[in-house]
């Protein structure tokens, strides 16, 4: 049995508790919006979720460092010494939260050896939960049903279904054109936050290409779930994503793919 199996229900509970706090603030529609140094928005929901997650994870094992988008970021010199740590986005999709699309999530991943070994994603308004352990299986649960195994879509599908952000506008139009030419016929599926990776994991779409920047906390939990479901999250050269290997916490471009045959097409 995976050594973190006993932690999964507790981490899922922590994520749901944070999600409930987010949902309460979301329902008021009267929260303050501030800007961070990078001009991205932050709300009291981000902060409250961060605080609840920190408290919850510390109750599991206080010795494990926590790297949260809304917390104080340790220097690379310090965090490069970590053998394992929690990587957290308390509210992934703050723009979606502000715009009222319901497509925002709580992301919690445990990183060990620069790889995600446990991943939990909760969408509080949709009441959708996803979770997985490295080397095990991936699960999905909604408000009505029992947990169910999920798998990526492995057969050939035409047109391909491609997940993109609701504000999708390719900044590198030449790169997007080159990729789309190789992919052939496709249709776009618009979605917010880490739910795009989850759509690949459960076979609803074939591919989520990301040519613009994201943070490591945006992808780690999703990568764990996607890999357990039979997919891959790779950089633009086809290499699996690794975490906490560079001073920057900004990801390069990537492909979240369900069918391994797409990797050679995307990275060709």
What report would you give on this structure?
This protein has helices spanning 8-28, 44-60, 76-79, 94-99, 173-183, 195-201, 216-228, 261-266; strands at 33-35, 41-43, 66-68, 84-92, 105-112, 115-123, 128-133, 138-141, 148-149, 160-164, 186-190, 207-210, 232-235, 254-257. The strands form 4 sheets. It has a 7-stranded mixed beta sheet, sandwiched between helices. The chain is an alpha+beta fold. α6 (195-201) runs parallel beside α7.
Question: What keyword list fits this structure?
Answer:
single chain, 268 residues, alpha+beta, 7-stranded mixed beta sheet, 8 helices, globular
How would you sum up this structure in a few lines?
The chain is of the alpha+beta class and 268 residues long. 32% of the residues lie in helices and 26% in strands.
**Largest sheet geometry:** 7 strands, mixed
Strand content is 25-35%
Which stretches are low in confidence, meaning pLDDT under 50 for 5 or more residues running? none
**Count of DSSP helices?**
8
Strand order of the largest sheet: 3-4-5-6-7-8-9
Q: Which structural class do you get from the secondary structure elements?
A: alpha+beta
Kindly report how far apart the N and C termini lie: 38 Å
Helix content: 25-40%
Shape: globular
State mean pLDDT (0 to 100 scale). Answer: 94
Q: Please provide the ordered H/E string of secondary-structure elements.
A: HEEHEHEHEEEEEEHEHEHEEH
Number of strands: 14
Rg, Cα atoms, Å: 17 Å
């Amino acid at each position: 049995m995976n050594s973190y199996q006993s932690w999964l229900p507790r981490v899922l509970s922590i994520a749901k508790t944070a999600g409930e706090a987010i949902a309460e603030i979301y329902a008021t529609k009267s929260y303050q919006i501030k800007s961070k140094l990078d001009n991205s928005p932050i709300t009291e929901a981000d902060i409250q979720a961060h605080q609840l997650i920190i408290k919850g994870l510390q109750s599991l094992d206080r010795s494990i460092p926590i790297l949260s988008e809304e917390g104080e970021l340790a220097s690379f010199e310090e965090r490069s010494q970590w053998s394992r740590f929690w990587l957290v986005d308390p509210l992934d999709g703050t723009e979606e939260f502000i715009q009222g699309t319901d497509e925002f999530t709580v992301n919690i991943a445990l990183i060990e050896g620069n790889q995600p070994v446990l991943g939990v994603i909760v969408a509080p308004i949709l009441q959708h939960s996803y979770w997985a352990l490295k080397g095990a299986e991936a699960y999905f649960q909604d408000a009505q049903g029992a947990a169910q195994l999920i798998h990526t879509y492995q057969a050939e599908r035409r047109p391909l279904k491609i997940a993109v952000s609701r504000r999708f506008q390719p900044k590198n139009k030449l790169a997007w054109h080159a990729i789309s030419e190789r992919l052939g016929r496709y249709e776009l599926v618009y979605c917010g936050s880490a739910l795009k990776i989850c759509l690949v994991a459960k076979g609803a779409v074939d591919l989520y290409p990301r040519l613009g920047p994201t943070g490591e906390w945006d992808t780690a939990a999703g990568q764990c779930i996607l890999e357990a479901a039979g997919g891959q999250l790779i950089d633009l050269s086809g290499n699996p994503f690794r975490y906490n290997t560079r001073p920057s916490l900004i990801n390069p471009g990537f492909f979240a793919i369900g069918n391994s045959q797409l990797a050679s097409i995307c990275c060709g």
